[in-house]
Each structure stands twice: as C-alpha cells, then as structure tokens.
Amino acid sequence: GGGFAGQADAARTALARGLVQHLNDAELRDAFMEFDRSLLVNDVRQSEPKKWGGPGARARYQKSYR
After folding, report:
1. For the residues of 14-40, what is the DSSP string, one character each?
2. Could you list the pLDDT tens digit for every one of the 66 residues in the chain?
3. Burial classification of residue 17, based on how many CB atoms lie within 10 Å of its CB (0-12 exposed, 13-18 middle, 19 or more buried)
4. Which of 17, 32, 46, 60 is deepest in the core (most CB within 10 A)?
5. Structure confidence at residue 41 (pLDDT)
6. How many C-beta atoms lie closer than 10 Å to residue 25's C-beta?
7. Distance set, CA 45 to CA 1, 6, 37 (Å)
C-alpha cells in the first residue's frame, strides 16, 4: 500500500539496492539476502479487492433458509 509501512519498506529496499549497486559487492549482496531477502527483492503481493455479497474479498454473508 501507500501507507507509512509500505513507504518505509520501499525506502529500505532502495537504500540496500543502492549500496549493493554502488559498491558492486557480491559479498554485501549475499549478506543482505541471508539477513532479509526483502531488502533487495520487493514483495509485489497486493490485497484482493472486496467484492459484492460479503464483508470481504472471499467471505460471504451468512445465508438463511428459513
């Protein structure tokens, strides 16, 4: 998302990628990957949009037959 946490994640990814690219250091890249892969690779998953007929993306409203 575009909230504070998402922007912070984007900033730390940009800083880590910039350091690795500027220093051209494979050892630093491996250390970052071992510590936390999300430093160099973005997580592109997004929340599924809400749909009609329920309170969320997959959950449905309770059905009554009587």
Report:
1. HHHHHHHHHHT-HHHHHHHHHH-GGGT
2. 678 988 888 899 999 999 999 999 889 999 988 898 888 888 788 889 999 999 999 999 999 999
3. middle
4. 32
5. 86
6. 13
7. 10, 12, 15
